[in-house]
């Protein structure tokens, strides 16, 4: 029998809808209590509430505490896998943080729900059951942190919330899911080829995320730098370009020793130094801007916060993002 640790952090999966007002909020009795009984014959479940937070309230220090709690519990007991329930709004950031932080080959699966526990078509219990089945599956080992929702298995690195309300919200644009679940089986069809792992002890660096737009100038970049950040992520245009009026603010920021990581605001493709015009990727790269591929702006921010705990040496940072 597999032994699975289930850690709850809050979110819609642990909320109830008020049938009179339609409001959705945290409920007094944990709606997922019944799960242990349902799985008792095949899986030994130990569950624990770590936080009771809607996911817009989750901060990087909660993510670190969650990661440390997983390490502590896994060191004390031989769990076969871990499942985390989480609100969907920031689920991908927590999942990616855990992917960077955890040092385990065992399956770690994050799940959530788009409909609260007493709504018609509620997906919480089903997603939790699927997540537990994936975490119990030997093939789920060595795949990094996984996100299981709506019969699909995604990597923490590639998954993103794409719809505000559809139960099929979690997608991995460009890459697709790495597997699927059915009522009886778990099928994997891809494997991650690269892992980074950073065993940090704290997460205190201030990193801001800015989105580029047509006609942008350097006001926002200068203001963010002057607010005292340790790093900045910019969601740039297209292949990794910025409007020309931002260039001097970018230069000032790098000259102040504040690293700038560039991703694209496009949700597919890679950033590269193709264009040599003012503000083009070539000029930004030559100025020392770090190009990050395969992650969204919010995830690049989590990674920059994590790696800045280890170094702010520009060459090492370039290497960590390459
Ligand atoms: N706003 C909710 C949260 O992220 C949404 C959800 O859980 O699906 O906590």
Automatic annotation (TrEMBL):
Annotated coiled-coil segments of the chain: none
Catalytic activity from the UniProt record: L-asparagine + H2O = L-aspartate + NH4(+)
Annotated Pfam families: Asparaginase, Asparaginase_C
Gene3D superfamilies (alphabetical): 3.40.50.40, L-asparaginase, N-terminal domain
Annotated residues for binding of substrate: 55, 88-89
Segments crossing the lipid bilayer: none
Keyword annotations from UniProtKB, A to Z: Hydrolase
Domain Asparaginase/glutaminase C-terminal intervals: 206-321
Gene Ontology MF terms: asparaginase activity
BP GO annotations: asparagine metabolic process
CDD domains listed in its UniProt record: L-asparaginase_II
The EC number(s) this enzyme carries: 3.5.1.1
Family: Belongs to the asparaginase 1 family.
Protein name per the record: asparaginase
Taxonomic lineage from the root: Bacteria, Bacillati, Bacillota, Bacilli, Bacillales
